[in-house]
Design goal:
about 290 residues, alpha/beta, Rossmann fold, 2 domains, globular, binds guanosine-5'-triphosphate, binds magnesium ion
Length: about 290
């Protein structure tokens, strides 16, 4: 197999096949090449199923491409019960050579742990950035836990909501509204969207120092996209993110070490039949990791 660092060298020269092979190699082996320079930043896009994340990403990609950016889109889990698993690439219908040349779309398998963001996402984003992709967009299906993980990974977080009040209240309750740097209320072509945006604005204004933008957009009709992209470009990422990012990285790596441990099945069975306690299980795992290295 070609060496990861060779693949990186040719991916840096613009060879997409090498880039794809490199991402597959990282996904399979968990190894990552060393990254020297990062040129881009990562935008996380989250929100309830069917709120229009993929369609909106498609619009933003066009806008960014017209501004001369090179955009990579990673879909963390392209299947959703609502859209029946429509692939992101279908939504980003890429007409025109320019768009094809400056856009890279790829889906990434989710991690073994439910709700976890696969730890390979960090090296993959690093590689994309090193290869000159200036805007890296990660779409995740909003399922509670994964939002917190994604918020820790990305440089900026966009929450996409639809006009459905139920979804918005859900996001408020789960604390997702607090994580976002920018909030977009999509489907402004449908009734209820502007009052939904108003509702979010008034709940944000309860905190006097909260001046985050709530933008009304219609991904379907292309309204509000220019304004949204400008706001994302100029937004001040939330300061708490740095430490949160490191904590989540640790947890994510740790989860992956645990679930890929060769003894994990046996240990789970022993826990089931009561022959060991959870504490003992942890002691067994930790000492075997210490002895065997990682
Ligand atoms: N009316 C209207 N429909 C929209 C708009 N944006 C997206 N849709 C529709 O909403 C549905 C879901 O759109 P997606 O872009 O797949 O939404 P998503 O949030 O990516 O969905 P999942 O990835 O399945 O969670 C599709 O039928 C879109 O055509 C919009 O601005 N207005
Ligand atoms: Mg989608």
């Amino acid at each position: 197999m070609t060496d990861i660092s060779d693949l990186l060298e040719s991916a840096k020269l613009g060879d997409r096949r090498s880039l794809s092979m490199l991402i597959s190699a990282i996904s399979e082996s968990g190894d990552s090449p060393s990254i020297n320079s990062a040129t881009g930043w990562i935008l996380g896009v989250t929100g309830p199923p069917g709120s229009g994340k993929s369609t909106l990403i498609g619009q933003m990609v066009r806008k960014w491409a017209s501004l001369g950016e090179r955009i990579a889109v990673l879909a963390l889990d392209p299947t959703s019960p609502l859209s029946g698993g429509s692939l992101l690439a279908d939504r980003i219908r890429m007409e025109g050579d320019d768009l094809r040349e400056n856009v890279f779309v790829r889906s990434i398998p989710s991690g073994k742990t439910p709700g976890a963001i696969s730890p390979i996402l960090w090296p993959i984003c690093g590689v994309l950035s090193e290869c000159g992709w200036t805007r890296i967009i990660v779409e995740t299906v909003g399922t509670g836990q994964s939002e917190f993980r994604i918020a820790a990974l990305v440089d900026r977080l966009l929450l996409v909501d639809g006009p459905d009040r139920g979804d918005i209240i859900q996001a408020e309750k789960a604390g997702i509204l607090e994580l976002a740097d920018v909030i977009a209320v999509n489907k402004s072509d449908l009734p209820g969207a502007s009052s939904a945006a108003q509702h979010i604005r008034s709940s944000l204004s309860l905190a006097s120092d909260d001046n985050r933008d709530v933008v009304l957009v219609s991904a379907k009709e292309g309204h509000g996209i220019h304004e949204l992209v400008e706001i994302i470009e100029n937004c001040e990422p939330q300061k708490t993110r740095g430490k949160m990012m490191m904590m989540e990285r640790l947890i994510s790596e740790w989860d992956s070490i645990l679930v890929s441990h060769p003894e994990i099945d046996n240990i789970a069975s022993e826990l089931c039949d009561g022959s060991i306690t959870v504490r003992e299980a942890i002691e067994i795992l930790v000492s075997s990791i210490r002895e065997g290295g990682l």
